[in-house]
Specification:
mainly beta, seven-stranded antiparallel sheet
Length: 252
């Protein structure tokens, strides 16, 4: 009898222990389900990266131009980043052959430099690259997206390359020409006209005389008096490769 009671007590104790264990596990699972998991790492903002060129930044690539070719397209850099904007034909070095001047434009934006190439024709009608200037032709737009000159054109006449820039705004009108003297392609003439409130100015340079003349007209007075100043140019030869016609008078 006592043995049977003892067995019954053991069975009841076992059931009670199992019941407590099950309750604790259920409570633990319930607690785990109600806990919010928080990432302890700091949050970061990721900037989207674009493969497109930034239109507000001037691009100055380091390119190589082919030395010979049969047409203008043969002289474009192999990278394909440039297109032809202006071109003109004529005899530049007085050999009776038709030479070419080309202005290139960077495809990515309007504020980058525009290379200018001088292609001299050979007897077999092919061409050779003789001169390159990255500054003879000014940039088309400034960083504020303002077009500097309303009209632009280039021509070859009487053995000279003419660059003509027209603007009714502050950029003024600028006309420059280059010609060959021996193997050098040099600045022959610049004429610039600027108009502003109260007056306008004219600036002139010519290679033969080596003179720079600056005329100032005062339009605020009835008789519009003109003052003139002439000085000697600092150097004799202004090379095509290193000369900007729009910046030429800044140092005078």
């Amino acid at each position: 009898m006592k043995k049977r009671i003892t067995i019954n007590l053991l069975i009841l104790l076992t059931i009670a222990v199992q019941s407590c264990t099950t309750k604790k596990k259920t409570d633990a699972d319930s607690t785990a389900k109600n806990v919010e998991i928080t990432d302890s790492l700091p949050s970061r903002d990721f900037e989207e990266v674009s493969d497109e060129p930034d239109q507000s930044i001037a691009y100055e690539p380091d390119v190589t131009y082919p030395k010979t070719g049969n047409k203008i397209a043969d002289f474009l850099p192999k990278t394909g980043i440039y297109e032809v904007q202006y071109e003109t034909e004529g005899d530049l070095n007085n050999d009776g052959l038709t030479d070419i001047a080309v202005v290139l434009k960077y495809k990515g934006n309007n504020i980058s430099k525009r290379p200018m190439l001088i292609l001299l024709q050979n007897e077999d009608k092919s061409y050779r690259l003789d001169k390159v200037s990255n500054i003879a032709m000014p940039v088309e737009y400034n960083e504020a997206d303002y077009k500097l000159y309303d009209t632009e054109d280039i021509t070859i006449e009487n053995g000279e390359l003419n660059i003509n820039l027209y603007s009714i705004g502050p950029s003024g009108n600028i006309f420059g020409s280059f010609k060959y003297v021996g193997k050098d392609f040099i600045l022959d003439m610049i004429e610039a006209e600027y108009r502003g409130a109260g007056g306008h100015s004219g600036l002139f340079y010519n290679y033969e005389g080596g003179d720079i003349t600056i005329n100032q007209t005062n339009t605020m007075e009835e008789d519009q008096p003109v003052t003139s100043k002439t000085t000697k140019a600092k150097v004799k030869h202004y090379l095509f490769e290193n000369t900007s016609i729009t910046d030429f008078f800044n140092e005078y």
